[in-house]
Every structure is written in C-alpha cells, then in structure tokens.
C-alpha cells in the first residue's frame, strides 16, 4: 500500500472524542461574551501581509520568523493570520464600525504561526478573542479583566493566576528604552544571540526572554514603571482598584511586556503552572494607537485572546471533563427503513433529543452492543412486532428495569421525565 499522507507538523486533528469538550468550552465562552454585550465578527483567514507587519510590528517574533507568507497567483504577498486583532481592526475601519459607535466584538478561529511545535504550542492553533473600541477610561480595561475572570471561573478553572502591568505611553517607553539599552549594553557579554539582535531594534522584548540564563540580568534591568507618566499611572491604579474591590487577586509583573508591539498602558495575562513553559492561557491589553496605525481614525481599543488548545488541555488535566453529549437513545431495529418514520415522529416531539441508530441493521446482539458503547441511556427496540403496533420497546441500558412497550405519547412522557431538559420547547445547546 502506498504510504499514507499525514498531516503537517504542528497541525492537529481535533477528534470526535475531543470535540464535546471543545464545544463545551466554546459555548461557555460565547455565553459569557454575549452576557457582556459582545457581538461576533467573522473574519478572513488570509489577509495582505502588510496588514500584519504594520500592526504587529516588524521586529516581533511573529513578523520576523513565524508567519506563513506566500505569493498568490497574482504575485500579491498574503499571510495566514497569526492572530485576530489586526484583521478585526482592518474590518472595523473598512466597514465603518467605529464611526460614532463603541463596538464590542468577538471572533474565533484558527491562527497560524511557524513556531517549534511542543505541548501547548502548535503551528495551527485556535483563539477566541474580544475587543472593545472607542472607550478610553480604565473602566473598560477593568471590566474586561473581570469578564475574563468570570469566564475562567465558569469553565471551572481555579488554578490560574492573573498578572498585570502597564506599558504607559510611547513617550514613557522611549525614556525607559534609553535607560534599558544603556544597561544592556554595559552587560553585552551576558546577552544571548536573540537579545543582541534585539538590543537596537526592540530592547523591551528582551525583558520577555524565556532563556533561563538571562533571568537575573532582566530581573535587575531598569523598570518601565519608574518612567511612567502620571496619566498612565493613574489609569493603571484605577484598574487595580476595581479589581481589589471586586476581590480579584493579581500580581503586578513589571516584566510583562507581551509579544506584540501594538500594546500601550494596561497588559494582562492569565497563567497556569500546569502546562510548563506554555502557561499563558489568555492574554490581552490596551492598544490605543493600533487603529490609526492600520489607517483608521484614532480610536482607543482594548482586547484579549485566549488559546483554546491550552484551555482544553488544562481542563483535561484537571479532570474537569466537558459535558458529555452522548446520545439519550439508541434505536435497535429489525428494519431501519420502517423504523425511520417512527423515529422522526419522536424527534418532532422532542427536538433536543439526541438519538442514534444503526441504519444498516445487523443482529440484535451486535446492535445492542453498539447501543451500549454509544453511551446512550436507553435502547429503543423496534422489532417486527413493535413496528406493526407502532410501539417502542424501551430498555434502560443503565439500570435493571424490565423492557416495556410504550406508544409515542407514553414514550415522550417517559423521556421527558428521565431527562427534564428534553421537555423544554426550545432546543438548548
Ligand atoms: P507565548 O508567549 O506563549 O508565545 P504569545 O504572547 O505569542 O504567547 P498571543 O499572541 O498573545 O500569545 O496569543 C494569545 C494566546 O494564544 C496565548 O496566551 C496562548 O494561549 C495562545 N497561543 C499563542 N501562540 C500559540 C501557539 N503557537 N499554540 C497554541 N496556542 C498559542
Ligand atoms: Mg508567541
């Protein structure tokens, strides 16, 4: 047999055993975002390369070495989106979403970065992100952080901690940068290759190094906080004060700088120790100059993105399995063609019923085996006799009760008693 084609390194299939947990996580997040007034926007996966170099920053890891960039058949340089904010800002400008409105938007989908694949770090991964445009004050920063806290709590993740910092204004960063470069230059011998390269292009990013041998060096480096302008300092204090009043604990981490250039003022991350070096599950902050940078009218913005792979694996690790969506019923029949109309009549009555059947028959024995494996609670038996009498044989697969024969009305009642959520008239997910 010819060698099978396998997926690309760093690109994964999310298999049917895993999708229930994914769906649970996605639905919980969506519910939380909508409760705070965010509306979904769906964006293209491919954008012009220039959009990302202009917004994320030329000398960031992403733009320097992680983008999937290619020329299309017209010779235009295109890029698979490495993150969602740039596209969101582009779409907002292009569609006039920011004019006189303060939109709250969320998006979800795959992102692509050519990184070294390892646990929690893939080349295709999935993010859900949210953004608010047009609000300048610290209130929206605080509200967004509170929302992310609620989101993680709803998912049952207690084991994550919040880190905060402020990056101040461009002027504050420039003054700090000068001091930082002087400090690092004096210690040039201790810098790794990456840091040497960054020294004159993007020294702030050196503080974000993951190299353990440079930790002491960056620990003692000049702190941006000491160069902060008063307005940024007040803004940050106001955010912290709301969190204090709401009883959210956090740590101010002066080295939290984020990997993208567009941030200003508040930045925050939710981090876990359970996923090794890939511990950041959700990250965000304010980016007041980005809209203008991409070509729109100056519009302040705050946003965050979370990594679904990391959240899902954290839930798996902590045993917080997702809501099962095993079928309620499994139909065992002698003639699926005759059984189908009856089954459809049952579905009409209970729209939320999860029901599965094996249409190509097989022995009762093998169908019962499959019913059991499906996780269904009840087998609905439609043998010749039941089909002729339009009754369902009902066998509890999880208890000892005798099989009973029920007409459609009685079956509807029985199932709604057993699974009260089925009685709701609307389909709930
Ligand atoms: P890291 O420091 O871990 O590389 P980042 O700063 O590059 O993260 P962001 O661009 O802020 O990450 O993306 C937000 C979130 O998306 C991250 O906190 C993480 O949960 C997730 N994420 C980022 N890159 C990857 C990846 N390659 N694989 C899986 N998840 C990722
Ligand atoms: Mg990264």
UniProtKB/TrEMBL annotation:
**Entry GO CC:** cytoplasm
Q: Which reaction does it catalyse?
A: tRNA(His) + L-histidine + ATP = L-histidyl-tRNA(His) + AMP + diphosphate + H(+)
One Gene Ontology biological process: histidyl-tRNA aminoacylation
PROSITE patterns, alphabetized:
AA_TRNA_LIGASE_II
Q: What is its EC number?
A: 6.1.1.21
One Pfam family assigned to this protein is HGTP_anticodon
Q: Where in the cell is it found?
A: Cytoplasm
Please verify whether the record's keywords include Translocase.
no
The terms under GO molecular function for this entry are: ATP binding; histidine-tRNA ligase activity
Q: Which superkingdom does the taxonomy of this entry point to?
A: Bacteria
Which parts of the sequence bind L-histidine?
83-85, 113, 127, 131, 258, 262-263
Q: Which UniProt keywords apply?
A: Aminoacyl-tRNA synthetase, ATP-binding, Cytoplasm, Ligase, Nucleotide-binding, Protein biosynthesis
Presence of keyword Zinc: no
Q: What Gene3D superfamilies has UniProt attached to this entry?
A: Anticodon-binding domain (3.40.50.800), Bira Bifunctional Protein, Domain 2 (3.30.930.10)
Domain (Aminoacyl-transfer RNA synthetases class-II family profile): residue spans on this chain? 21-341
Q: How does it assemble?
A: Homodimer.
Q: Give the family, as the similarity comment puts it.
A: Belongs to the class-II aminoacyl-tRNA synthetase family.
Q: What is this protein called?
A: Histidine--tRNA ligase
